[in-house]
Amino acid sequence: MKNQDTQTVQKVQPSGYKSSYSVSMWGILPVCLMLIGGIMAYAAVCGDLSLNDIALFLVAAGTLLCLLLGKVLSAKNAAFRYIELFPWPVVLLIYGKSCLTGLILFLNEFISGWNESHELELNLFRADASLAGIQGAAALVTVLQAVILFKLVYNKHKIGQGIYTFVWIVLMLFSNRFSSLACAFLLAGLLGGVMAGLFFATSIRVRVWIVAITGVLCVAAVLSSDAKIDRIQTARETISEKIRELRYGDRLLPEGDLYQADMLLKDDQVVMELSSEQQKGVYLKGFVGATLSDGRWKALSNTAYGGDNAGILKWLSERNFDPLMQSAEYYALTDNQPEENVLRIYTTGANRYYFYAPASLAQIETGDAKEHKDRYFSSKGIRGQRQYEISEISDSKPSELSIAEDWLLNPVGKMQQDYCEAEAVYRGFVYANYTTVDDGLNTLIEEWFWNDYDASKGGIYSATEQIRKVLLERLYYTDSPKEAPQDENALYWYLTESREGNATIYASAAVQAFRIRGIPARYVEGYYVPATEWNGSRDGTVEVTGRQAHAWVEVYFDGIGWMPVDVTPGYYYDALKLQQLIGMPNSIHKTAALEDSELAADEIKDIGKDGSGKKKDDSDKMTGWDRVILGMIALLVLFFTLLFTIKELVRIARLWRAAHALTNTNASRRVKAIEKMMFDVLKLLGIEASLGWETGDIDRLLAERYEQIHPGEYKRVCQLIEKNVYGEIVLEPFEERTLYGFLRKLTKIVNKRY
Prior knowledge:
The protein is of the alpha+beta class. Helix content is about 50%, strand content about 10%. The strands form six sheets. The protein has a five-stranded antiparallel β-sheet. Strands 3-13-15-16 form a four-stranded antiparallel β-sheet.
């Protein structure tokens, strides 16, 4: 007969615990979700690279199967652990060394997307990858992702899982190739891994939550169509535009948007006051466009400044050659150098983002400006630049009459030799990037401008005359052209359907016409002040209004640089007048501008200058990779800060709830609260435990790991809890104090650790 006084303590497994096979099978669910998201993210970042998605998912499934078999079977025989290594030699055997070139091509795709999104010019790696190499690299990355995720999830490294998810989302965002579905799977897997890590095993409740979260996120991703994402992007751009308007004022120029061409002359308010020491026409450059796409002029892609051209602007700067001041540098080296002219500008209504300056700029005397590569200057400062003073060097003749000096072929002295060497390098860059006709306009432009042109004629002068003649005959000028339909190619529509336009349309068409003849050209917007404006000025100062907003062409004159060429009727001399000007002396009348003009910016500090007297380009202080690394570090710091804050708040909330339960309940509930809090704290220490399960082993583990806890202490606490829970015996005050004391020890250990 069994002794009735003998108590038998049943060995109880934690709630929700199943066999090791069940744990392994369900535990792999978060791994699968994050791995699917990782594969889709990799494919998204690859952009135009051809990837076989089915093959990648088969590789992923095979890798996970090997990892799972290795984990389960190694419990019986350690030799089975080597099954986990099986996918590596298989992938390498199939694809071989081509995997490496495929990885390099993947990096190039990411760098290209990064450059386009962030206006950088990071270099691409040299690699010739085959289709097999691209697929091999993807398979290798898939195996690597599967191994990493398997280890992270099964070892409950929640921070590691968060970093994995964070890195892929950042890569998609920064390469401007975001996949909402990939993001959904990544987040679902991360939440599933975190939830599974809070328990000993993935219970039925956890599984339901993981599946439900995955479904909700995937449905949301599918419903987030490209149109909706585009609307979000449009909203972001609108907000950015509003912030820019608050900083610099209203946007008064169309800035290369042909669909808003009628903005050019809408406003007749005074936008700036301009003072000049010479009576001559002045083109004050603002926006500069290099490529026409979807009816909008855009800056030259940053990839043009990478590859073989990497570091070209820095190389030119080291030789005191600045493309934005090139024509002044050229004139400064000629025997008959034109006299320097000083311009003083005070912006009243013009957008202060642009630092308005002519192509003949020689030096920035006062003010603070930033160079945007070889395109234009912008104002520094939160509110932009209201007043500044610059000097320029140019003659009085129109640009199309410019003829390069003989010394360009036979330079004399080091300064001329250095200039010719630098100009030859930059000229090659210009011809490679500013001679492409955009948006499929080749046939139309060729028929419009060059069908009846005598090909034996050469030079910019004759090409300019031909372009002006065609535009005058075939296009009707109007200040306010009709708006082109959004679904039409804007320039094509204006030239074939509308047959009317203002300076925006004339300049856009002329850029294409110059380029198809092999002459480098680009689109420019700003303000034009003709020479006649100075006639009625007593002190050399005139008011510039919105009616003087203008668009023109900048043409690259070999050896001289970018110079303004106007093709809009009423803004240039006719052929007869130009013929007369060719033989006339280059004389420029002076104005009555005073040296102590009211426009002199006394309170503006002079900018730093280098040895050549030119403004330093601050953009050279930090390279593209420096900005990339700093940006990534900042994002990682932010991520870890948020992660730590959330984790700390959760811990504080748990401790507060437990403390509240300990002081506001009866004796029986207090014991149950102590039990729950004790096992929660043990879980924070990485020890999975429950009442009556492996009590002796856990007691020894605690005593060995923490010197504050004595052997048998944990076992004694469990016995007291069992006495109350199973025996329904109310504990004595000293017994309850024993529970409190042990709990305080555990809490102190946790506080020191976290």
